[in-house]
Design goal:
With 696 residues, the chain is α+β, with helices and mostly antiparallel strands. It is 23% helix and 23% strand. Strands 22-21-20-19-16-11-24-23 form an eight-stranded parallel β-sheet. Strands 25, 26, 27, 29, 30, 31 and 33 form a seven-stranded antiparallel β-sheet that branches. Helix 8 (451-463) runs antiparallel to helix 9, helix 8 runs antiparallel to helix 13 (539-551) and helix 13 runs parallel beside helix 14 (585-600). The N and C termini lie far apart (64 Å).
Length: 696
């Protein structure tokens, strides 16, 4: 008897018996979209079903670990090469967080928002907030940001006039040349854009594919940006209607606004103010007729020194129908709206607290004034109610509002209740830099302007530039690992209802234009001059960015003029006028086509997102539902790239075809194109240099 032979045979038998496959990490998937959580936005005390996808016959056991409770998951079904597991969970009215535990023999793995991991970190748990709902109309909607003074001048009779008043120690100026670059000190220069101009171009916006208009501030204000609001109750007549227009301009060199009678009449006379409000109501009505929504900019952290509550410029001191401002009189009903450091400095007290020390931006002092608190709550409800019917608010520097985080959270909780009571489908989105998690717990903001989980990572990856064009990082240009790490980390701060409505911008009024970032020039208009912002730009890279914007989860938001090829360094250069008559027509048609594809293929708007492959200057990801999938390929290299991509991961069949819907190349693009055979769940494709490819 050959004992050694039988010993080896027994060892082989034990080895085969104990040999198990490893986790097929590429197959495992879940998120908190409606494809994996039903209902996707559950009510308090509702039962929710949570799903996980694995490779067919790959795992032995799956558990849902929810709020530290381990729940066995049943295999619900098998489709193709995937098994789908499900567990039911009875909600309370509290947020739940969860992850998955998977077993293969003795091997245990965990799955959270990062994918398969060895160790669990609470930050990356999936999360569901019972009762948290964001408006359906905003989920994946294409938004369009309008900086009104620079969009279109539809009514020259309401233009700010040279010498009409003084602002920051100089008289304001009317810019006669619509195509002139903004000056380095641009805040007191006006090009004449107004709401009539928006009405005139409403059909252009509809034809482009816009679903939501987001306006920079519209309320009475002395600046062109209007983040220093003068009167929250009225639209600025310079944007609206001036029906009573008497008074004098300031004499040359005069800076005392008590003498600016033309301006005083324009912005305090109720005939002008009511006519301007009526025009805004018409803008909203016309937008709604075309299936578009309207979002207002709410600047509630600070107001302006011109504000009727403060009245540092004495605009309202002698105007009929107005109380004395807090600067003017110690007896002002608005005195407690501000924090005055010297209580013995009246009349004309200038010792108030300014935001970041700016005396043109008095900090509002909510903690000391219930009247102010209630006033702003009323404003929040007023503009989303009849007759104006706006569809929501974007909140400026929202986290800075009060003097403590605790107060800020309390304020925004009340603001949400007030606004949603007035208009349940109004959206509340905030400007915020940094971790959003504390603010997106379902009882304050709906979402944010998505700097951290979209604008910045996309900009670094495709251009290597900082979003103000203040720095170039060669180590981040093309660094897909850094891009994906940033996306995973920051997206974990969102629940799905917030992520689906997040404002995904490439440019806006605070940062350089994305097209300018493609030239890798570090500087501003003050250092390089405005013409440098137009030089060396790369339209091919811009197209890649727009394709990512239109195929990522969230609400793609176009900054007016980006679609027409407008360039510019950070503000004020980013606030150039829309180039009517000089548009880049190719880019406009490109945007139309990308928006049309987004709307035609459901998965691009509401599907799950999975990254399939990445490398230097290369990214492949898919958007997919339970019945359709699309593949997006970004080649940011300046040479062609051959790649084999596993499309089965996003639900494509093991054999079949994927058809090209779109491909950009060298600043050009093509719709349709060749089909690629799927072999064993993979396609082989050669990508042109600096290109984006979309297959379905």
């Amino acid at each position: 008897m050959n004992t050694e032979y039988y010993r080896q045979l027994e060892n082989n038998r034990k080895y085969i018996a104990n040999m198990r496959p490893v986790f097929n990490k590429r197959a495992v998937f879940s998120d908190t979209s409606k494809w994996y959580v039903t209902p996707a936005e559950p009510k308090p005390y509702e039962e929710v079903k949570i799903h996980l996808r694995t490779a067919k016959d790959n795992v032995d056991l799956v558990y849902l670990v929810c709020n530290k409770e381990k729940i066995y998951m049943d295999k619900e079904r098998t489709e193709g090469r995937f098994d789908y597991y499900v567990a039911s969970y009875q909600l309370s009215d509290e947020k739940i967080t969860y992850y998955f535990e998977l077993h293969i023999g003795q091997l245990i793995g965990y799955y959270d928002t990062r994918g398969i991991v060895r160790e669990i970190t609470e930050y990356y748990h999936f999360a569901i907030i019972p009762g948290f709902h964001t408006p359906e109309w905003a989920k994946g909607a294409v938004m369009y940001q309008i900086y009104v003074d620079r969009f279109c001048n539809g009514d020259t009779s309401n233009d700010v006039l040279t010498g009409e008043y003084a602002y920051i120690k100089e008289q304001v100026q009317k810019v006669e040349d619509w195509n002139r670059y903004p000056a380095q000190m641009d805040v007191r220069e006006f090009y004449g854009g107004d709401l009539q101009g928006v009405l005139d171009k409403m059909d252009y916006l509809k034809d482009l594919g816009v679903e939501v208009i987001y306006f920079n501030p519209l309320f009475v204000s002395p600046s062109n940006h209007k983040y220093d609001i003068q009167d929250y109750d009225y639209i600025d007549p310079h944007f609206g209607k001036i029906v009573y227009d008497e008074g004098e301009l300031l004499p040359w060199g005069e800076k005392d606004n008590k003498k600016a009678s033309r301006y005083i009449n324009r912005v305090t006379d109720k005939r002008n103010l009511e006519a301007s409000n009526a025009l805004f109501a018409k803008v909203v009505e016309e937008a709604h007729k075309r299936g578009m929504r309207v979002i207002l900019d709410g600047v509630f952290n600070h107001c302006g020194s011109f504000n009727k509550w403060m009245d540092r410029e004495c605009i309202y001191e002698n105007a009929p129908g107005y109380e004395k401002g807090a600067h003017v009189s110690a007896d002002s009903p608005y005195k407690e709206f501000f924090d005055f450091k010297n209580q013995n400095a009246w009349p004309y007290n200038t010792t108030y607290d300014g935001w970041w020390g700016h005396d043109t931006l008095p900090k509002l002092n909510y903690e000391n004034s219930k009247e102010l608190y209630d006033y702003v709550m009323r404003i929040g409800a007023k503009w989303v109610s009849a007759p104006y019917n706006a569809d929501g608010w974007r909140l400026d520097v929202a986290a800075d509002l009060g003097h403590s985080p605790a107060f800020n959270h309390s304020f925004w909780q009340d603001f949400r209740k007030t606004v949603k009571r007035a208009n349940p489908e109004a959206i509340i989105l905030a400007e915020h830099y940094g971790n959003t998690r504390d603010w997106l717990q379902g009882n304050e903001w709906d979402t944010v302007m998505n700097y951290d989980a979209f604008m910045e990572p996309v900009t670094w990856f495709l251009t290597g530039m900082e979003k103000h064009s203040d720095d170039f990082r060669e180590d981040l240009l093309g660094n897909s690992e850094s891009f994906l790490g940033a996306m995973r980390h920051h997206c974990a701060s969102f629940t799905m209802p917030s992520l689906q409505v997040a404002m995904n911008e490439l440019s806006n009024h605070d940062h350089s234009r994305f097209l300018t970032r493609t030239n890798h020039k570090v500087g501003r208009t003050s250092t390089l001059g405005p013409e440098a912002a137009n030089q060396g730009i790369n339209k091919a890279v811009f197209m890649e960015a727009v394709v990512m914007q239109m195929t990522w989860i969230g609400a793609p938001t176009i900054y007016y003029g980006d679609e027409a090829g407008v360039c510019g360094f950070t503000d004020p250069d980013n606030r150039r006028t829309y180039p009517w008559g000089n548009e880049d027509q190719q880019l406009i048609v490109f945007h139309k086509d990308m928006i049309a594809l987004r709307n035609q293929y459901r998965e691009l708007r509401e599907g799950s997102l999975k990254v399939i492959d990445n490398d230097y200057n290369f990214l492949a990801y898919g958007r997919f539902t339970n019945s359709a999938c699309s593949l997006i390929l970004i080649n940011n290299n300046d040479t062609p790239l051959e790649r084999e991509v596993s499309v089965w991961e996003i639900g494509a069949p093991m054999t079949g075809k994927m058809t090209t819907l779109f491909q950009s190349k060298a600043g050009e693009y093509f719709l349709g194109g060749i089909s690629y055979e799927i072999t064993a769940g993979r396609i082989k494709i050669t990508l042109p240099p600096t290109s984006a490819t979309l297959l379905h």
